[in-house]
Amino acid sequence: MKQPVALPIEKIRGITYPPPPSITEEATGVAADVLRLNLNESHLPPSPNALAAAAQALTQTNRYPDHGCSTLTAVISKRTGIPASRISFGNGSGEILVALAMLSINEGDEAVMPTPTFPTCGKGVQIAGGKVVSVPVLPDGSNDVITMLAAVTPDTRLFYLCNPNNPTGAILTASDLELAARQVPDTVLLVVDEAYFEFAQAEGGPDVLKILANRAGPWVVTRSFSKAYCMAGMRVGYALASDEGIHKALWQLRPNFNVNRVAIAAATAAMNDDRYLQACLTHTISERKRLETALTHLGFSALPSFANFLTVVPPISADIISSSLAVENILVQAMPWPGGNGALRITIGSQPNTDRLIRAINKFLKH
């Protein structure tokens, strides 16, 4: 008689990537006195046009959504120049990153990734039974492409870049991206996570799609509506693939109707509202620079950031500062990198949010 299988299976028990922070909400939503500067959300609401489209779509939620996300696909295709036959969608770009690992990794295969970075693709590698080969980021927080390329072996099947990198904020140069496009073997899927694409673009970041267009091997760029479009709660991400084969594989892995009707309508309207997007980008970048100046005066060292957050190395333990702020209902993300005191990743909020944070840090440091 067969022995019962121990659940979860060993491969799943071995996943080392933790889930995101759990923050309990009341029925009315986010508590007004809690300052959430640890999740890289926008404090701004979505575009008014997106909210109106979402409200209209709510009246038809008795119907399943368009699984092809046809209206949204058309807008993205026009913006990016990528044909509809190479665009896919996920319940956030994280779902796509897991799928990309699953379509490229067999048991025992390797994936080369920076560390620290966004963990979800690595989680997908472990789900698929692969091995994550981690390469430390450079001192400025950017992916070390040269060392990552040196870590590629005949067993490598996925090469992951995060640009801008989360949780550090730095971007890759065009020359680094060109090097990866040329030297990542054609047998390896090159993935570029551009969740913060709009911020990098606004500040002169390289054109990743233009660079990857010259690559012979397979590639995918992932993007999100969670950050610049202020729609983290809607869960909409999309993938731009090098070829229809990858697109087909992503669609085979997609759960049925994984992007809901309200989210599709809101994302389409949001992408068509350039004026609101630019206003959000301008505000966030300006407030990030103000926060950087204030923290520098308090003895922090700021890393270059092209995102909706700022990562700083504090003059004392990041864990101690984070815990002290949490007592005052101010949540920031502490991390051990780059050693020593560690670092704090701080989401950019409103001007009053920044003022409250600076007052709390200043008060703590004086004690």
Overall domain count: 2
Oligomer: single chain
What is the 3D form?
globular
Number of H- or I-type helical stretches: 14
Question: First CA to last CA: what distance?
Answer: 67 Å
Approximately what portion of the residues adopt beta-strand conformation?
Answer: 15-25%
The CATH architecture of the largest domain would be 3-Layer(aba) Sandwich
Instruction: Decide which structural class fits the backbone.
Output: alpha/beta
As for the CATH topology of the largest domain, it is: Aspartate Aminotransferase, domain 2
**Structure summary, number of beta strands:** 13
CATH class of the largest domain: Alpha Beta
List the uncertain runs: none
Largest sheet: 7 strands, mixed
The percent of residues in helical segments reads: 25-40%
What is the arithmetic mean of pLDDT? 95
Numbering strands along the chain, what is their spatial order in the largest sheet?
2-8-7-6-5-3-4
InterPro entries: Aminotransferase_I/II_large, HistidinolP_aminotransfase, PyrdxlP-dep_Trfase, PyrdxlP-dep_Trfase_major, PyrdxlP-dep_Trfase_small
Protein name: histidinol-phosphate transaminase
GO molecular function, one term: pyridoxal phosphate binding
Keywords: Amino-acid biosynthesis, Aminotransferase, Histidine biosynthesis, Pyridoxal phosphate, Transferase
